[in-house]
Amino acid sequence: MLRSLLFASVVIALMFAGWLLLPPATTFDAASPVPAEDNALATRGEYLAIAGNCASCHTAPGGEQMAGGLPFVTPFGTIHSTNITPDAETGIGNWSFADFANSMRHGVRPDGTQLYPVFPYTAFTRISDDDLAAIFAYLNSLPAIRQPTPANDLSFPFNIRALMKAWKALFFEYGVYEPDATQSDEWNRGAYLVQALAHCGECHTPRNALGAARAGSPMAGGEYLDRVPGGGHRPWFAPDLTSSDTGLALWPEGELAAYLKTGRNFFIETFGPMNEVIMNSTSRLGEDDIRAMTVYLKELSGSAQAVRAPVPERIMGRGRTIYNLHCGTCHLPTGEGDPDMAPKLNRGSLVVQAVNPASMINAILYSPEGPDLPPRWRERMDEFQYILDDEEVAAVASYIRNSWGNRAGLVTPDQVARQR
Ligand code: HEC
Ligand code: HEC
Ligand code: HEC
Questions:
Q1: Residue in 47, 48, 57, 76 to alter for ligand 1 test, most ligand atoms within 8 A of Cβ
Q2: pLDDT digits (tens, 9 = 90+) for 83-101
């Protein structure tokens, strides 16, 4: 109690200090609004909206396109995405292009209300003027849907929108993407897509206690809370995408491209939060853009590696027994995987190698839930939540994470319990 009070007062003091430091809000000063009837522009905008994955957040399952209403669980409470169809009352129908650009670049509404960074304007601030204009034309070409946004449920002090002004002063870096002249056009295109539109770092970059990207370790892996069908939420870990030897150094460029384009590659198949990223966004991008993203990602310099707790021999032995009994028939005793039965678990799965085992634990407890793709495996993996207890899941995960060349460290029964 005392600690949380202390934490809250530090937060408020920091935010207030940030507020005083904040430069006056800048407004967008680009050219005039875009005519909604410009079809070529709207078509280009549609492609960019796919790259930005607007629909995954702004279209609720079974809901109208871009009409919002999807809940997002954060450590500070629940926030809903808004209606971004051109409805005048409940959407953005009355917004000028400058209003739209201000929300995407500065995270403010036309009336000056602050927006929460669950809306990834920390990345979208880097989108170019031309691309913003095209996205605006596309949104304006959609049917206007009347649908008010549900009320949010945030804890104090995070329910005070004005405090986001201070958060921004501390953590938000405004600015359009600046090409790096020492790099190729392809690399720059990839960097622009990954950093600005596709906002991969929103999940893959580690965050501090106030939900801001930690400086100095872009793409080194981050924790992410996701909704669970039927209510509640569960932590995941978006693994290290730098070229460290537990990150993307494990995959050749072609395998990364195959994963982003099709959801599958030689090593693994997508499951979890990446399903939406791949199905709604990257799989629908052109080959050139996918190649550009892989060129950029493969050149990210390796992150500093966290110390990984060694695994006692006793736990390795127990894990091996559980593995050979419950897992080896499909993943094979060597962890090599069987092309018809199950993917590889030896060096090649970023999820298995990750310093934080949250995504791997979800796979074991709840069975990896893939997207709607032509069947690849003969049988679905069991939900081991019904078969193994916390200690057994921890032991088998520790065993896999430290066998066959994997060096990912210990998983504790507490870490498993947290995800039940
Ligand atoms: C990760 C989820 C996510 C993605 C991706 C996303 N948004 Fe949002 N967006 C939100 C949330 C949540 C809000 C509401 C924020 C708030 O209430 O403070 C929001 C708010 C907005 C707003 C402000 C609307 C208003 O009424 O205040 C606009 C405009 C917007 N988004 C446009 C877009 C566009 C365009 C894209 C794609 C390029 C996009 N968003 C992608 C989650 C997302
Ligand atoms: C909404 C959060 C989120 C976003 C946005 C996101 N990722 Fe991920 N990513 C995850 C999580 C969580 C995992 C681990 C579980 C899974 O596969 O879903 C992951 C896994 C991965 C993996 C490793 C797959 C494996 O199984 O070894 C790669 C590669 C990857 N993401 C690339 C990307 C790229 C490139 C982007 C941007 C286009 C991106 N991700 C955007 C959350 C995200
Ligand atoms: C019936 C066969 C089968 C058995 C038995 C099985 N699995 Fe799996 N496993 C699969 C399949 C199939 C996938 C891929 C599913 C997908 O990604 O769509 C998978 C994926 C995984 C993944 C995710 C790998 C990645 O990075 O994508 C992990 C971790 C895993 N299994 C661990 C285990 C453990 C631990 C056990 C034993 C307790 C086990 N599996 C038993 C079939 C099996």
A1: 57
A2: 999 999 999 999 999 999 9
